Amino acid sequence: MSDKLEIKKVDISHYGPVHDLELDIGEGLNAFYGKNESGKTLIVEALTKMLTEDSSDFDGIGRVPQQPNGLLTVEKDGREFDVSQESLGEIFGDVTAGDIRNAFVVRDFDLRLPERENDFGNGDYFKDVTDRVLGSKTQKIESLRSEISDVGFLTNKTSEAGLENRKSSGKLADRKEKAESLRNEIEEFTDQVEEEDLYGKYSKIDSLEKKINSKHREINELENARKQKKHGKGLQLLKNLRQAEEKIQEIKKERHGFEELDELRKKAEAFQEKEVKVQGSKTGALVSGLVSLSAFTAAAFNPVLLVIGAAVVSLFVAAFFAEKYRRSSKQVRKQEKEKEKIIENAEAREIETSSIPGVVKAVDSYEEELDRKEKKADKRKSQTLGELKGLFNADLESIEDWQKELDSFSNSFESVDRQFEEGDLEKAEKNVEELETKKESLEEDIEEYDEVIANFDTAISDAIAERFVENEVVDLATVQDLDKALRQLDEFISTLEDGVQASVDAISVLEEMEEEEEDEFNKVFDEGSYAVEMFREATDSNYTDIKYDKASRKIKVVRKDDRELEPEALSQGTYDLLYMAVRLKLAKEILGGPGFLILDNAFVHSDRERVEKEIEFLEKLEDEGWQIIYFTFRDDVRKILEERTEVEDLEGLQFQ
């Protein structure tokens, strides 16, 4: 920026013990004098806080915790701004709070020895401001180098770096060394494997393993086929059981219908008895009639008392039987209709007969057939249940229980398209035993090598970091896996080596860029620069130059004997002067035109002669249009200042 920047008005109404303070600030050099504890530092702190909006990150600015109340007016290119109302960017443009704090406000605190380890010349601020002023990219390059070093797992961020071995990253250098050693061991082992034809043995074991697996699948299929056959037989037996039970139920129904036939048979048998009695009465009547006729005939020819008596008795007997016959005949005639009805009922039940005895015989035959069927059905049911119990080794009785048993059994096998033949399963199991015996014999021959392979497997897992290989770490189980293990070890090693090399190459390029960029730093301290001129003249040419050292990344000074020194080797006064010169130079570079400087005991360690030279440089800045606000507690400095400008006394500050 080229606009002139000045502080116009300072009014601090309240900041800690400071009250109602107004400072008359004009152009050029503004000097203020106050002894220690007179409030100078509080005023500088208040100004810094008001200018930067937030100075919580700056050391030494915090004796009073709150923000100051008051008015600070800044003029820029003829326009006034109230810093409490406007943002830092609106007033100062690209000037940052860090710029104000480090370049435009300079305090004794910033230059004291105890803070040298964190002085801004060796810190981030100096690099940041020179980057912005000179348009360089050193900090970005530095950041990129750090990122590349982290990504490439390097020991440091230089092109001389190697693979790191930090625990947090997994001890990569150790892993790489293990991987290389392991690769050599595996290569030697593979040579031994080839010499002893272990590949052939492993191949035979693999072939036997496949055959055994195939036979196990066949056995499993046969087991399923056996169970499937058993299940099919069980279903058939269950069907037979249902049929037998249905037959028994049918016979029971027939038994119920047989009651009517039995009643019909009883009626026919009763009718037969009556018919026999009628025939007996008829025969008795005929016989007694013949006897009576013979007796009366005899009595007619021989009328004696005995014969006559016998004739009378036989007559009574004949009369009795005759009467009985008459009654029986009458009963038979009455039952003739009943006989016809019995025969009709028999015919209705498909008994073809025209006689009562035929009805009885037919019913007897039907009953015998029913008994035979019932015995046959019971026997079939009993035999079927026995077969089911024997087949499934279950003592169940009901059809429902057997249905559940078969349903459960159907879940114990898979349906297969294969018929089960007795002997197939035994044959397959015997075949498996023979194959496993051969396999065990070969495995005994290679058992010691398996132990070596197992050790290799563990070593590979310990050596390879999985994130550096494309696939999961190989599972080393047999010699056939050795080639895969070697390829993965090579992949791991080359990935690390390629990563390191690529990172080193990238850092090498950045180092070249950084070297070019670092050359730009020294433009700040070229021969005619304000900083070099001020430092050289203020030290009576004891120090002739200021430069930026690439190796140490620090500011160095050149003594008149051409010896280069670091700032820490300087006396306190010379140290203060160096960084004052650097800060003033940066302030000029940042603004690109006149601005303001606030100095608080900035030359506290300089003697009177050196202070005079330093103030001469401030007068040069004043001639260039700079505004300088100078606070001091030294009486000798006050006298030097009074020769050049009016010095305002701060003894009248109001405190609580």
Structural features, described:
There is one protein chain. The protein has helices at 40-52, 88-92, 97-104, 108-111, 124-134, 138-151, 172-195, 198-301, 305-348, 356-392, 399-410, 424-445, 447-463, 482-521, 530-538, 572-591, 608-623, 635-642, and strands spanning 5-15, 18-24, 29-33, 69-76, 79-82, 105-107, 543-549, 554-559, 564-565, 596-600, 627-632, 647-649. It is α/β, with parallel strands linked by helices and 656 residues long. Among the domains are: 5-136 and 572-649, P-loop containing nucleotide triphosphate hydrolases (Rossmann fold); 243-394. Strands 6-10-11-3-12 form a 5-stranded parallel β-sheet, sandwiched between helices. A 4-stranded antiparallel β-sheet has the order 2-1-4-5, covered by helices on one side. Strands 7-8-9 form a 3-stranded antiparallel β-sheet. β7 and β8 form a beta hairpin. The longest helix is centred in the middle third of the chain and has 104 residues, at 198-301. The radius of gyration is 66 Å and the shape is elongated.
Q: Can you summarize this structure?
A:
With 656 residues, the protein is an alpha/beta fold. It has helices at 40-52, 88-92, 97-104, 108-111, 124-134, 138-151, 172-195, 198-301, 305-348, 356-392, 399-410, 424-445, 447-463, 482-521, 530-538, 572-591, 608-623, 635-642; strands at residues 5-15, 18-24, 29-33, 69-76, 79-82, 105-107, 543-549, 554-559, 564-565, 596-600, 627-632, 647-649. The chain is elongated, with a radius of gyration of 66 Å.
How would the blueprint of this fold be written?
Blueprint: E1 5-15, E2 18-24, E3 29-33, H1 40-52, E4 69-76, E5 79-82, H2 88-92, H3 97-104, E6 105-107, H4 108-111, H5 124-134, H6 138-151, H7 172-195, H8 198-301, H9 305-348, H10 356-392, H11 399-410, H12 424-445, H13 447-463, H14 482-521, H15 530-538, E7 543-549, E8 554-559, E9 564-565, H16 572-591, E10 596-600, H17 608-623, E11 627-632, H18 635-642, E12 647-649
Parallel strand pairs: 3-11, 3-12, 6-10, 10-11
Antiparallel strand pairs: 1-2, 1-4, 4-5, 7-8, 8-9
Helix pairs in contact: 3-16, 6-14, 7-13, 7-14, 8-9, 8-10, 8-11, 8-12, 15-16, 17-18
